[in-house]
């Protein structure tokens, strides 16, 4: 997907300004002017070649009607195809040397040809970029960052070859992990789960309860007709991604498995540490425990689970960069915001399916953030070309952002507490190369044989992106919803032409897990995502056993007519937020539960029917 560079031309034949003058971002304040003699490591992230063809390349391997379905690219072919052109490198290099008078010895091209590095003094950088650099301090944790919030300028003939320059307008994550109980004036990274946790005194008594009050692995198997034992062994792979202090304890896994999956007792996931991530360190046991127990419990002992554990060392990085950089060295070297802080670069293994139960930023257009999240989404698309499937939770804030309920006021600011205002999507769920998963529940006094409803314990996230346009593969489904079932909100409440999500749904409440030495009822779309990830991992296992490729990017297939029978349609419920009832669940796709929950036999048959 070609992405906007968000450039405002000051004088079309002279220069373009990146990020027009603006106030200091929320949570930050100017501490002082940057020392003019201090060294500033600048990085010019170069525009990629062929990026406008990314969707076409992806559809060639992911559209069920394509003769090349499943013929995924090698990482080398991906890197070569999107490497910046010689013209791009030469144009930026020539400007630096011949026009700006930079010593050629100071300029270094990354080994993959994706970025130009140079160390200048702050005074030299200000002269080069027409910017004013400051040292900023964050009010929450005192973190400091050097940047120029009022933007910078590049000559027009150079700007089209540069995605962005680091460090400049982006001031870093405000707080790497937002606890569920926090309500902050600054939206940022956090766990998705807004569901409560209810202790279970006697887990044996749950056997007499229905799946409307306690969801066990057997409930999930009954809901989705999921009955599968993996046979491909190490040829198949799946991972859950956990960040910062979200960790697990093997004793909790054994407690859970002893009751619900005895053959898994003693099993733990294989840790893939990124940025010093350590799952044995002290921290919050909620998210990682939930993800691991659900995926391992559903897949069984014949499928290994990997754990991408991203540590606090990545706390000054941007969103998904530590994970993306760790599995793709070309991205790590090209990334223009936080690669100075990335400790792992292309040295970690990829997997077929990765489940992400976190939110990283509201999907709002912002000249300091939009180019970054668009670049990250593009990277997810490039990795999908190699056969990876990215699955993410859609959020627990309904049509607002995160469980704190951020909405966008008329003056453009974001405010928590679900005030009246424009709806806010959630990243990475709104990236079109991610499969976003909403949450459902079994209705009161109903069974696994009855249709589920959109969960009412929290508002399942869903809506329309402000950063990504609606892809062609979901046009029919979304148009049907907007025409026949869509609410009559004002045009400025949500972006009707944006990428719509979630794509699918799975149960999100009340799931029984073992955590901190006791059984609890928990959930959130942070549970729905790993459940659906387990389902797709089983599909991959069956395809690999049949001599076929993993499914890779699944969204075009999910929306195709070949998969019309692959879902249990959810038509009851809403996802309130921003002082509204949000959207309504409806027949077919809707922005609450997507296409519906998986009907595993039909989903498996549809994928096995593809080449």
TrEMBL record:
<keyword id="KW-0645">Protease</keyword>
<protein>
    <submittedName>
        <fullName>Subtilisin-like protein</fullName>
    </submittedName>
</protein>
<feature type="binding site">
    <location>
        <position position="590"/>
    </location>
    <ligand>
        <name>Ca(2+)</name>
    </ligand>
</feature>
<feature type="domain" description="Peptidase S53">
    <location>
        <begin position="214"/>
        <end position="610"/>
    </location>
</feature>
<feature type="binding site">
    <location>
        <position position="588"/>
    </location>
    <ligand>
        <name>Ca(2+)</name>
    </ligand>
</feature>
<keyword id="KW-0479">Metal-binding</keyword>
<feature type="binding site">
    <location>
        <position position="569"/>
    </location>
    <ligand>
        <name>Ca(2+)</name>
    </ligand>
</feature>
<dbReference type="InterPro" id="IPR036852">
    <property type="entry name" value="Peptidase_S8/S53_dom_sf"/>
</dbReference>
<dbReference type="Pfam" id="PF09286">
    <property type="entry name" value="Pro-kuma_activ"/>
</dbReference>
<dbReference type="GO" id="GO:0008240">
    <property type="term" value="F:tripeptidyl-peptidase activity"/>
</dbReference>
<dbReference type="GO" id="GO:0005576">
    <property type="term" value="C:extracellular region"/>
</dbReference>
<feature type="signal peptide">
    <location>
        <begin position="1"/>
        <end position="19"/>
    </location>
</feature>
<keyword id="KW-0720">Serine protease</keyword>
<dbReference type="GO" id="GO:0046872">
    <property type="term" value="F:metal ion binding"/>
</dbReference>
<dbReference type="InterPro" id="IPR030400">
    <property type="entry name" value="Sedolisin_dom"/>
</dbReference>
<dbReference type="GO" id="GO:0004252">
    <property type="term" value="F:serine-type endopeptidase activity"/>
</dbReference>
<keyword id="KW-0865">Zymogen</keyword>
<feature type="active site" description="Charge relay system">
    <location>
        <position position="526"/>
    </location>
</feature>
<dbReference type="InterPro" id="IPR015366">
    <property type="entry name" value="S53_propep"/>
</dbReference>
<feature type="binding site">
    <location>
        <position position="570"/>
    </location>
    <ligand>
        <name>Ca(2+)</name>
    </ligand>
</feature>
<dbReference type="InterPro" id="IPR050819">
    <property type="entry name" value="Tripeptidyl-peptidase_I"/>
</dbReference>
<keyword id="KW-0732">Signal</keyword>
<feature type="active site" description="Charge relay system">
    <location>
        <position position="291"/>
    </location>
</feature>
<dbReference type="GO" id="GO:0006508">
    <property type="term" value="P:proteolysis"/>
</dbReference>
<feature type="active site" description="Charge relay system">
    <location>
        <position position="287"/>
    </location>
</feature>
<keyword id="KW-0106">Calcium</keyword>
<keyword id="KW-0378">Hydrolase</keyword>
């Amino acid at each position: 997907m070609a992405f906007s560079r968000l450039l405002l031309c000051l004088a079309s034949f002279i220069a373009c300004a990146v990020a027009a003058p603006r106030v200091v971002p929320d949570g930050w304040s100017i501490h002082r002017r940057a020392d003019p003699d201090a060294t500033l490591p600048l990085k010019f992230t170069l525009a990629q070649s062929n990026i406008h063809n990314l969707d076409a390349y992806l559809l060639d391997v992911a559209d069920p009607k394509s003769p090349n379905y499943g013929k995924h690219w090698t990482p080398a072919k991906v890197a070569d195809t999107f490497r910046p052109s010689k013209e791009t490198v030469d144009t930026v290099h020539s400007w630096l040397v011949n026009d700006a008078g930079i010593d050629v010895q100071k300029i270094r091209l990354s080994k993959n040809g994706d970025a130009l590095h140079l160390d200048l003094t702050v005074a030299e950088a200000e002269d080069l970029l027409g910017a004013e650099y400051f040292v900023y301090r964050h009010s929450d944790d005192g973190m400091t960052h050097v940047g120029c919030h009022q933007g910078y300028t590049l000559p027009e003939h150079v700007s089209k070859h540069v995605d962005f320059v680091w460090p400049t307008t982006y001031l870093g994550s405000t707080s790497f992990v937002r606890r569920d109980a926090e309500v902050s004036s600054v939206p940022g990274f956090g766990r998705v789960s807004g569901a409560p946790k209810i202790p279970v005194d006697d887990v044996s008594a749950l056997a007499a309860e229905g799946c409307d009050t306690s969801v066990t692995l057997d409930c999930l198997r009954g809901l989705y007709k999921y009955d599968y034992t993996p046979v491909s062994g190490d040829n198949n792979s799946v991972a859950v991604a956990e960040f910062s202090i979200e960790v697990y304890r093997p004793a909790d896994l054994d407690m859970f498995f002893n009751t619900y999956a005895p053959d898994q007792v003693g099993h733990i996931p294989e840790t893939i540490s990124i940025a010093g991530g350590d799952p044995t360190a002290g921290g919050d046991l909620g998210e990682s425990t939930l993800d691991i127990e659900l995926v391992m419990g559903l897949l069984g002992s014949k499928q290994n689970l990997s754990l991408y554990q991203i540590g606090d060392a990545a706390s000054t990085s941007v969103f998904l960069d530590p994970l993306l950089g760790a599995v793709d060295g070309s991205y790590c070297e090209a990334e223009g915001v936080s690669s100075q802080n990335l400790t792992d670069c292309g040295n970690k293994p990829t997997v077929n399916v990765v489940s992400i139960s976190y939110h990283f930023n509201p999907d709002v257009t912002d000249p300091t953030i939009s180019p970054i999240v668009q670049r990250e989404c593009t990277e997810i698309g490039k990795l999908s070309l190699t056969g990876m499937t990215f699955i993410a939770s859609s959020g627990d804030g309904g049509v607002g952002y995160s469980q704190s309920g951020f909405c966008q006021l008329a003056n453009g600011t974001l405010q928590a507490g679900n005030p009246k205002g424009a709806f806010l999507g959630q990243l990475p769920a709104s990236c079109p190369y991610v499969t976003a998963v909403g949450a459902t529940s079994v209705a009161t006094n109903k069974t696994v044989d009855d249709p589920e409803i959109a969960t009412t314990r929290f508002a399942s996230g869903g809506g329309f992106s402000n950063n990504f346009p609606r892809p062609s593969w979901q046009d029919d489904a979304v148009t049907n919803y907007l025409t026949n079932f869509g609410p009559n909100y004002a045009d400025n409440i949500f972006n009707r032409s944006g990428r719509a999500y979630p794509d699918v749904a799975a149960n999100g409440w009340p799931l029984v897990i073992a955590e901190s030495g006791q059984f609890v009822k928990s959930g959130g779309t942070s549970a729905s995502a790993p459940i659906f990830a387990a389902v797709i991992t089983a599909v991959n296992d069956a395809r690999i056993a049949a001599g076929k490729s993993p499914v890779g990017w699944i969204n075009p297939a999910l929306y195709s007519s070949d998969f019309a029978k692959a879902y249990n349609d959810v038509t009851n419920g809403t996802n309130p937020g921003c002082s509204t009832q949000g959207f309504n669940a409806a027949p077919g796709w809707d922005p609450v539960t997507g296409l519906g929950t998986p009907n595993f036999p039909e989903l498996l048959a549809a994928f096995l029917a593809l080449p």
